[in-house]
Amino acid sequence: MTNQKLNIGIILGSTRQGRVSPQVGEWVKGIAGSRETANYQIVDISDYNLPFLGTTDGTEPGISAWNEKLDSLDGFIFIVQEYNHSITGALKNAIDFAREAWHNKAAGIVSYGSTGGARAAEHLRGILGELKVADVRTHPTLSLFTDFENWSEFKPQELHLANINAMLDEVETWSGALKTIRN
Ligand SMILES: Cc1cc2nc3c(=O)[nH]c(=O)nc-3n(C[C@H](O)[C@H](O)[C@H](O)COP(=O)(O)O)c2cc1C
């Protein structure tokens, strides 16, 4: 194994106008930024203009760019918001647009919603299993009632910091381990 830093993508799961996921993603990136073992970057699904899977001939440049971005990453932090007790359609669509690029990598989940986004996060865990992504146990859950003002301005409680760092530790450890079995 080389001493190269791990590359970890913080994937924003929502794409709607007025979404709060960029605030949450930037907060996680800010916490992760002080760590020396990995490089963290925001990966915004909406930058890739992915079509709805199966509705085009699949030659849009965003599809290959999305796969190349995932290929370049060793692990993922999913910023997950609860839509009708599950993940967003946009995130599921983006997940479905890649296969091998997900394999044998690790992931952490940071979720939010009225019950911390827990139901969406649990759905995502099932999907990740099919894609050979090892999702870590520690799962920070943010409440729309106590970590946001007016459901729109992100004001995280201090108590989440320890959980975020514990999750990042787990993702880095597993990302590094899984890197050794990929070519
Ligand atoms: C279509 C839709 C469905 C939603 N369903 C739920 C839900 O089932 N449970 C929940 O806790 N919040 C639900 N919400 C509230 C969202 O979790 C909340 O608006 C959150 O800010 C969405 O994330 P975003 O701002 O990044 O898009 C729903 C929001 C939308 C737009």
From TrEMBL:
SUPFAM superfamilies: Flavoproteins. GO terms for cellular component: cytosol. InterPro entries: Flavoprotein-like_sf (IPR029039), FMN_Rdtase-like_dom (IPR005025), NAD(P)H-dep_reductase (IPR050712). GO terms for molecular function: FMN binding; oxidoreductase activity. Residues 7-138 form the NADPH-dependent FMN reductase-like domain. It holds the Pfam family FMN_red. Belongs to the azoreductase type 2 family. This is NAD(P)H-dependent oxidoreductase. The lineage of its organism: Bacteria, Bacillati, Bacillota, Bacilli, Bacillales.
